Known about the structure:
Elements: E1 2-6, H1 19-24, E2 35-38, E3 47-48, H2 55-58, E4 64-71, E5 78-79, H3 83-92, E6 113-117, E7 122-128, H4 131-138, H5 145-154, H6 159-171, H7 176-186, H8 195-207, H9 213-218, E8 220-225, E9 230-233, E10 239-251, E11 257-258, H10 268-274, E12 291-293, E13 302-315, E14 320-324, E15 329-333, E16 337-340, E17 346-349, E18 355-368
Antiparallel strand pairs: 1-3, 1-17, 2-4, 4-10, 5-11, 6-9, 6-10, 7-8, 7-10, 12-13, 13-18, 14-17, 14-18, 15-16, 15-18
Amino acid sequence: MLFTITNEPRDYAWGSTSLLADLEGREPTGAPEAEVWFGDHPGDPADLTDGTTLDAVTGGSLPYLLKLLAAGAPLSIQVHPTREQAREGFAREAGLDADDPARNYRDANHKPELIVALSERFEALGGLRPVSDTLRMLGAFADLPGVVELRARLGAGEAADALRDTLGWLLSGDAKAAVADIVAALQDADAEEFADALAAVRSIAARNPGDPGVVVALLMNFVVLSPGEAIFLRAGLLHAYVSGLGVEIMAASDNVLRGGLTPKHIDVPELLAIVDTTPSEVPVQRPGGADTTYEIPVPDFALRRILVDGETVVPVTGPTMVLATTDGVTAATQAGGALPVPVGTAVFATADEERVTLSGRGEAFVAEPGRD
C-alpha cells in the first residue's frame, strides 16, 4: 500500500527561517524551521491523511528516520553512541524521566547518519583534523597564553590521547580564560590554507560568545558540500552541521552526546567515553549522474538519489519512502496505485511492495532498510 505522509517542521532555535519555505514554495512563517521528520519515531511520528500517524501502520518498527534539515545557525557539536553503548547507557538511565534534561540516552539504539546537500552550499564540521595540521593553523594565531597552552596540549604525546585531553580540558570549565584568548587571537589569524575554516569558526564564535565549543570547532575538519554531495557520520565521530539545507537519513534514534555550541546538557565524562579522538577526515560522496546510491556501511538504512526524467522502476526491500525535492514526481506501486509526491511531503510504501515506479520529472530520494 501507499500512504502520503507529512509532518510539521520542528522549531529548534538553530533552524532556518527561509530554507524550508523556499523549498516548498510558500511564505516563511517567521519562526525557525529546523527539521521535518518522516518516520515512526515516538518523538514525532509522521502524519497520515486520515488523522492517524505512521506508527499505526508500522507498529513503530521502522529502522530508519528520514528528514529534511534546514540549518540557519550551527547545531551543537555532537557525537552518537554505538548500539552497544546506547543499550548500556539507556539501561543505566532507566530511573530518569524521559524528558529529564540530564538524560543522555533517549533510546537503546545507535544513530549513524548521512546528510545529502540540497542547497548550493552546505557547511559542516566532521571529525578531528590531524594534529599537525591544526598546529600549523595555530601558528597563525598570536602567542596569547591560551593559544600557547592549546598548542602545548595538542603536541603532548599521541594524537588521539592529546585530543582527548584537550577536549576534556576545554569542556571542564577550567579553560575559560584560555578560550577567551584563543577566540581573541582567532579574529586576526590569517592562514590562507585554512581561510574557509577560520571564517566559519569566526562566525560560530560571534553566535556563541564564551562557548568552549568554538575552540572544539577549531580542532575539526571543515567540510563544504554541493547539491547531491553527502557525508556519512559514524558512531563516535564528532560533528556539527553549520548551515544549509539537506536530506538526512539515520538509524531511528534520538541519542545525542553534546560537546559545545549549545545551552543544553553536556556530560563531559560520558562524551569522552563515547567520542573517537583518532584524527580522521570525512570522505565526501559525490553524485554519480542521474542515479546515485550512497555508500552506507550499516544495515539500518539505504538512500538513493534519482533525477527522474520519464519513468524509473526501483526494486525495494522493506518499507520504503519517496521524498521529492522538486515538483513533478509521482510514485506508484503495483498494489498501491499512484500518488503525487509534493515537495515537503513523502510517500510511504509498505513492506509488501517489491518495487516503486517513479514518473514525471524532478529530484527524488528513495529511502529503505539497508542490506546486510
